[in-house]
Amino acid sequence: MRTPLLAGNWKMYMTVAEAVELVQTLLDNLEMVGDREVVVCPPFTALHPLSPLLSESPLQLGAQNMYPADSGAFTGEISPVMLLELNCRYVIVGHSERRQLFGEDDTLIARKTRSALEHGLTPILCVGETQTERAAGQAEMIVLGQLRAALGDLAGEQVAEIVLAYEPVWAIGTGLTASPLDAQTMHAAIREALRVHYGTDTANEVRILYGGSVKPDNIDVLMGQADIDGALVGGAALKADSFLRIVHYHSTSS
Ligand code: 13P
Question: Which of 114, 139, 159, 194 is the Cys-Cys partner for 129 at CB 3.0 to 4.6 Å?
Answer without folding.
Answer: 139
